Amino acid sequence: MRTDLLHPAGVRITGIRIADDPTALAGVLPGLLADHGFAVLPDQPLDDDEFLAFLKGFGDLTFTAGEEHLEGHPDLNVISNVGRWGTDAPPRSSFHVDTSYVAQPPAYTALRAVTVPAQGGATQFTDQYHAADTLPDDLRSRVEGRTITHVVTGVDPVEGESSADHPVLRPHPLTGRTALFLTTPARCAAVSGLDPEESEELVRLLFEHSTAPDNVVSHRWAPDDLVIWDNAAVMHRGDHDGVVGDRVMHRGMVRAHPTAG
């Protein structure tokens, strides 16, 4: 196995074939993700059963209530632009953390490439450790000890949770390293101890700081790519600008970090 560091976050892992041993990385990948946020595993031709076996090597799976299951695979869903192109604009994605509006957000999210567009369609990541480490002093003093109320948008949570409070400066469950934990501003309903106007302004500043160009790395998809990330360390988004062709991914999520219960 070879591991190459990306910048400002991420690792690229080669020299291993997941289809031959879906759990081969179960002992090492959580630590790599805790340190580097996300991992790209190129040249991994997998079917959905093999993809699920890979995910289950890290723990129990979870699913976002209200989203549509992949037929025959209730733990997976489809991320796709097929059928979503309107007359005015393509689908859009803001940097976010998956299902952060629950008390225990998913530890890991993974995508396997099913159909890769001829142009565009990258997945982008922000390094939330670096965002925390580089907070200006005035912003750090404003967020110390505060929480953000994360709320659901875009899906009906049915009988599930729809709101949760998380520390703005959140220790990673495995390492204790501090990350700036937020999501797209539309899902950040309030900051503890602040009125609505102050909350909105602070979230805007934190989000702008996190998504500054020098804190973003893009992964351009290739056929058979497998990408997995740690939701406690990065935000992510799909870049839909200038996409040519179909973009279809299958997504699965792991409930908890290995030592987080």
Automatic annotation (TrEMBL):
Entries under SUPFAM superfamilies matching the protein: Clavaminate synthase-like (SSF51197)
Presence of the UniProt keyword Ribosomal protein in the record: no
Keyword DNA damage: no
GO MF term list: dioxygenase activity
Pfam families: TauD
Positions of transmembrane segments: none
Keyword field: Dioxygenase, Iron, Metal-binding, Oxidoreductase
Gene3D superfamilies: Clavaminate synthase-like (3.60.130.10)
Start and end residues of each TauD/TfdA-like domain: 20-252
Cited InterPro entries: AtsK-like, TauD-like_sf, TauD/TfdA-like
PANTHER family in alphabetical order: ALPHA-KETOGLUTARATE-DEPENDENT SULFONATE DIOXYGENASE (PTHR30468:SF1)
Family: Belongs to the TfdA dioxygenase family.
Protein name, entry field: TauD/TfdA family dioxygenase
